[in-house]
Predict the 3D structure of the following.
Amino acid sequence: MIEMPEAWTMAHQMDETLTGKTFQHFARGALVHKFLWLSKPAEEYDAILSGKQVTGSKSYGRSIYLYVGEAHVLWFGELGGRILYHQQGQPLPAKYHLRWDFSDASVMTFNLQMWGFVGLLERSELAKHPYAEVGIPPLSDAFTPERFNQLLEEYPEKTKKGVKGFLVTSKHINGIGNGYLQDILFGAKIHPARKIPTLTADERQILYAAIQETMAEAINLGGREDERDLFDHPGGYPRLMGSQTVGKPCPNCGTAIQKISYLGGACYLCPTCQV
Ligand SMILES: [Zn+2]
């Protein structure tokens, strides 16, 4: 799934590469997926987009906003898969779910993995949308240690769900998914099932710092190694805790890295370091 460092990387690439291009056509590809959601029928996307120019792009947490003309925005919400740009004459993927053609014969395709939302809204609708620009992205001015503490205190499920539940739910902090979560919790030496009321003031500070450091490093490296950017290049961030390191020694203490299932997904952790 695309998390904040990948969204940040791709939004910058879209801004540089797509701004000024004119949409010629939008269509679904040959692939269908029941967990791909659009905000209106594909024909309406085509009718709205065709003839309009890309006017910029930015990310917000895990979302990418591609601005269209003066009034619209293509919103890549929480999603997994590949959003790829193809110059004129470059081969396209054999199959894809969505396709945008530009008037200069370049193309953007989207190939979904897991699930995803690709909305086309008026900018005024986006401002009112209950899932747009919710939560506070790490590294933003609003994400201060004080605000982080306040969010921890206000988490309605703090006695029921571990810290994982808080961190990956975008309406609190927007940017972290099940990928970076593992390295953040390893960096903070906190077990994903730890309940928030048991975290000491020091642990909260260390967790805050681990979020900021992990996100900053991953942005500098262009996202995770197992994700791709707009030009199909892998990111440079190697995951410490992930499916590829299960059973290998923890870099701190040598204990074998463990995989557990928790809150609807796998967690990778060091059972000695993370308590
Ligand atoms: Zn360890």
Observations:
- The helical segments are 4-18, 42-49, 123-128, 145-154, 163-168, 180-188, 201-220.
- Residues 250, 252-253, 255, 270, 272-273 surround zinc ion (CB under 6 Å).
